[in-house]
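YdcF family protein
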Amino acid sequence: MGVIGEITIGSIYLILLIGYFIWLRKKDKSRKSLWLFSGAYFLLYLVLIEILNHSFYLIIPALFFGLFYYFYQRDKPRLRNGWLFTLFLVVFATYLVAISFLGQSYITIGLLGILGIIFLFVLLFGLYALIIFLIGNSYIVLKKESHSIANLLTLILAVALIAWLVIQQIGPEILPQWALILLSIPSTILVYFFLIFWNFLLISLIYQLNQPKFNQDYLIVLGAGLIDGEKVSPILASRINRGIAFYHQQFAKAKRTPILLMSGGKGSDEKISEAEAMKNYAVEQGIPSEDILLEATSTNTYENMLFSKKLMDRLTPAGYQVIFTSNNFHIFRGAMFADQVGLKADGIGAKTAKYYLPNAFLREFAAIILMNKRRHLIVCAVIVLLFFLISMLNLIFT
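Tokens:
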């Protein structure tokens, strides 16, 4: 294409991008479309490169994306979808490398250069930067939230990473040669859980892009703990507010509103059920009480979905459309439970304070691990056994 052509395309792209960004700010619209616009423009650029080079390499990553999209649309709350999208990313990155040098694309070469610098930085300083971030984040969480185990996860992870670094440093100095192999056990397990976390985080972020249709009969609001046993907490209020926002959006689009199904039982330290407290809050926000339904016996997310499904099945045996709302970090696991009870319902996420997100996603990850604890215990046991056998062979034959 040449340097002048690349500069022209890049300049047009920047002008259009800046103009679109200004328009979005004036209209106060979501910036998700800005990412879609950027991706569409870059895709058109790649198509142009292919046409000029009389090649069809773009079909290969397109097929892998199609594979991910098919399985994702077929069954969204599946962890396998994260692996399929990761496979697409690897294939697409390989494609960019090929098109950069075969097609001599300066834009893609520049993009790969930037990504390479970022990867090199992460490789050299990423772990230390992560530890500093986790410690700083844990300080903020403990300052603003209760000092529960659930709110200490970022601090616990930081301490575990520091301990791992110390062991890796002093281990070679105090252990015999054959035992050094055993130091690979925590490293391998750490890499294994990092890959599992990457997959979970990736599919959780993709799941945030859900755009349910405005034809819902019910909207389940998942409960959370109450303040003083009767008042909704800020985190629960955000879930209700997200449900109320969709309630009004659907009325504006389709001239009919969904029933808000408040789901949450009464804890031993609560004066009223979470569902009743949620209804009181929603009524204060202007929602008519006749548009609110209560499910007041559940004690966890699985029961939220199960008991809500039974209630809706009884009230609307002919079938219904339903979605649910919870905090953005929680909706993927909520969808997994909905799938388990046979409830086809997508989740829409309520915003969560940014400082709380790292701890929240770690908590969700821990819950996902526990859902499949047998599988992960088997993998960890195999890792330990494998390196133990290697170390014993090293001791015997050296």
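The chain has three domains: 3-72+79-118, 128-207+373-397, 218-352.
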